[in-house]
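Can anyone check this?
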Amino acid sequence: MEKKYWIHKTIRPSTYPINFITGNWFDAVNEGIEYTIINYLTHLQVFEVKLENGIYRSMYPKILQQFMSKVYAIVKGKPENGIDTFFALRKNDIVHYIFDRKEALFKVLHVLELKPLGINPTNLFMIDSLLITSCPHGSLSSFDINNWRITKVDKPTNFVLLSFITPGKTLCRIEGGNIIAYYNPYTLELLSKKSISVTGYKLFSAFQYMDGAIICYVSETESEEGIPPMFYYISENVELTEVDTLVQIQQVIHEGLPFDEKSSCFFTEKMEFYQISDELNFNVTKIPVTTREEHYFTKLLPFADKVLMAIAISGESLLISPPPTKHTLVYNFEIGQMGLEVSSPLAQVPYMVSYTNTPKSNKINLIRQGIVAASKGNTTISEAVTGLYHVNYDNRKIIAVSHANSTQFIELVNQCFTQTVVQGVKENSQTIGLGVILTRVSILIHARTDGVSMIFSDPNKPGDASIRNLENVSNVSLFASTMSQFLICFQKHRLQFISVPEADARKFNIHDFDAAIDVTAISFSGYQLVNRKEQEQVSPYADWMAIATTDGKNHAIRVYNARNFEENQFLTISMMCPVSSMAPLTSTRMCVGLENGIVVLLNYKHGTKPFVTNSLSIGQGPVRVSVIERYHVICTNSRTWGVSVNQKDIPKFTPVAIHSLSFVAGLGQQHFLAITGCQMELFRLDKGGELTQSKMSTKSPIVKLKPLDGTSFFFVCTKDDIKLYDIRGMMHNFDECGDDEVIKDFYVWEPKSSKLSQTIYVSFIIEREEESIIRIYSLQRPTQQITKANSVCEGHFSKHFENITILNCNDTHNSPFIVVSEGSDLTLISCNFETNDMSCIYHLQHLGRGIDQLTTNDDIIIVGDCSSSVTFIKYVTESRSLQIIGRDYSTRSITSLKPALPHSVCGGDRFGNVFYFELQNITQKKNLNLSMNYNIGDIITGTCFTCDNNHCIRYSTISGKLGAIIQLGSLQKDREWVSSMNEKMTVLQLVQQKTSWMFASLTNCFEYEFHNKQFPSGDVLDLDIIDIFLNMAFPKQVQVLESLSRYLDKKIDLEYISSSLNQFKNYFWNWKDRK
């Protein structure tokens, strides 16, 4: 029987901010830098905010920590030992946190349990030594934080619209029944309440202004347009007073917040920002902010003193201060993405497609996994390139572009390429390396196939004459260097190791030796891993060097001591195939590229045996490995990957969102050069992110997206039209609706019988007054050019259909079956392309409360209901009817549904669950088998299923989170793979279990409870928890590892955990073409 493994990983955490607090969280005061905690509902992130002359300029994400629950608000607490603390408000309690440097996380100090009457609060306030919570359902609670106890719980009303603390330290709430009420925060006693009813108007919004609130009213008669809104101010001491200055704006107010005790900011329906001040004179001033036309703001949050942050539904943010000061801040939170789809273009990393609709704009989001590599400039290369090399010599950035029989030298000045001349080098030879030796003078080494040139920066101070005989050495094949050492291989097996003695820089130590077999790659070790914020003294000497050899059958790497070299003293480690290239990562790790497309890490410490970890297949063909900067290497073949290590020397493999790089040369400071086709480009890596995103716009709201597998094309269905796009823009327009028509849904399919003809069919529903129109188009599968779409069938029905799909029970494009839904009913429609005829053949009623999702998997119709979960339905040919064959009887509100393997479906619901259902026997009606369920903690807006190397469910949430759950099966795998996988899964699941328990003891955040909410998650391995373990303090890691070693009766170390984690992460990155 097949053994299945489910593994979860977050691709991008949610980025919808709930609130901000700024403080001294790390006992580190840096001028011009503030540290702000952003609450993202299910996790927090600390940002380093930089100021210049008091103006906020930029935000950089730092520490990220999981809450493992929903946190509705955070407030700053009293400092302890000079470090600020904060309180986190959850459904059933309030948790007090402080940053612990020893544990490297925010650790719990106290937990205040809420009474049953006061659960589910959304507002948290702190006054003196009191914490006060306010609930939308009307409850109030207060806590004394000096004695850490609850003081009072009350429920004076059943509904609350707005809660805030006034400058006079009273609690004000706008409550149900059009009441504004004031409470004593210390006793929660009602001080006063007033009616805020206005005849003929209903309350639309309200915000705090001074000690009271400004309330926006709209007409109760919705049918009457053009009636302007009304605005009133009310406080404890002021009766309901009309605000004439706001009436003149003639716009509805969406949201507002106070700047200070005497002024507030608000924005209107037209996305205009205003300040209201001057107490009861209500002076209104427009705030001149720079925004794009399509910005549609939904939230206003306090950011700092007299600074508010406005957040658009697109995720882009804007900082606002009182006039005349203006702060703008560009930071994209990436929220509200819907309809996630995944496309797999041939020989490329797939991209995820989603959309965001706003009242002002509609965006298509194209997201590709991988580090962002931004092009900063390029120059044309006329000849075929055989190598690319860079050195900093004589305060110049010298680049050598090698060709078969010549070398072109280029200088990089201010990101511009300039042809240059380097005195003493030979331009009529092929270059195989550049290096700089630092002795009494700088020496530029130019390694060529026909010799090695030594160019001295000061010709009057020549070096050791004994190395000048390298000028005319023939058949030089490999070269490697540090600042005081270099190694040359010639005639494929002879080597010469040259170093500058530490005691006497006037002489060179020269060692000639013979490997006796072919040498395929050489490299020196890298730098010591140190605190990168400190000024370290970098040694110019490598501790060891590696030489890769092969005799055609046996392949190995020899490790030599580079400080005290002895020809016959080396350690050997075997490799699975010939080594194509090597590059240093740290002083103990070397990145090794193999001929079969695999990258491994060679690990060596003095006094131990070398060993290999972190095997990763990055693509097809030999791997070229190049150093970009210290602790960062890039590997290239058919794809591009980055390899780096963190402060704890834990390796990390991440794809780079760029393809077809033949040669790479690092420049440092996250910049590198690369040959792409006939151009040399300058790139800059954004190591802070692992996603590359671009956007496209549409005029009307988007209904659905559908990529075409194996191509870079995707269909976009809006309410007005259907278009075919590629990743560069629109390519073809199918159909446009009339003024009284709206497209409700569409479906794209490719019948199996049309594979040879490459025909694609597009069906969609158009709603027109009292009828629905179903149209079907056909076109040839696009390659480089788009053929014209032909209308093949159309039908008119006196119903309002909402969802459409195709049933493949009869796989012929001459008579497909269309399935549509209306409310909780299904209708089966037969159509004939030859007669252009459609007819209803069966109607199935009352499947639930309302069908929101509809799809098919071969001959099974799958329905997702707004409350009745998932239903499997089969078409019975004999009776020409629909029959329910499987059902999930739990209560789920389905928000996404996608076909998976035969007789199975994956999807998501409104409660945050990602699920996978299977029907194991389709011959009889039975309950669906829930194979996997994992609670993410947020509304699922999209899911998709891909079956490349492994089965993968990708999901998106309403707050911007992207993640994936893969299924690894043991079927048709070799016995060695199954044994290794079982062992690693066992170890990592134990690490997850012990880390979850330890994390809960430190933070009061319970991972198991969070992910098993409503439904059991089963044996899902969460790589996010393994990342938490690897970022824990070293004593905690040792504690977990020692416990595992005793339990498994086998030594488990950090290297094993890190290597297993990178292997499993590779399953999320390493895509191959479908089928």
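Reply from J.R.: I decoded it. Residues 531-536 have pLDDT under 50 and may be disordered.
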